[in-house]
Amino acid sequence: CPAGFHCSKGLRHRCPPGFYCPQKTGISFYPCPPGTYNPSYGLSHAERCQLCPAGASVPNPSGATNTSSGGPCPPGHFCPAGTSIPQPCPVGTYSDRLHNGQDSSCTECPPGQFCGSPGLTAPSGPCSPGYFCQPGSSSPSPPGVWQRGGPCPVSHFCPEGTSSPLPCRAGTYNNLSRQAACFPCAAGYFC
């Protein structure tokens, strides 16, 4: 049986899309390797299977005839060229779009929100009261600025969903950290 064909019962058939058929292929032909596809009939070598383009994946190479058989890269993921399994957007990011080709296609979590797990299609939720969350935060209550946010400092307040600590207003004070509101100035005192 010549290369590019598979043979059975004395009949010769062109190798189908999604597969390759080296010389002497019988009734069992070979699927293109993971992360590749073949849209044509008669392919003879695995090296001629094409890489899936960025933003698409082919999760099951057997029978895969084009990138749409694996589908577009799903929301919450990215698919570099040659991907067979979509990769989740990293913690601190999300994506609500299809066809992301690289991790930079994932969107950094917005200020005042957190993205606490990989593969999100939307932020996990607002920052906790008494804390502030900067862009890319991965926790509702970050332990410090190096964590893209932190506890609300003294003389400030941080209601739910705060992106930067807010200074206490005139007539109020706060001598504690991690507060969602400032206290009214006591009678006989100036704030």
From TrEMBL:
<protein>
    <submittedName>
        <fullName>WBC30 protein</fullName>
    </submittedName>
</protein>
<dbReference type="InterPro" id="IPR009030">
    <property type="entry name" value="Growth_fac_rcpt_cys_sf"/>
</dbReference>
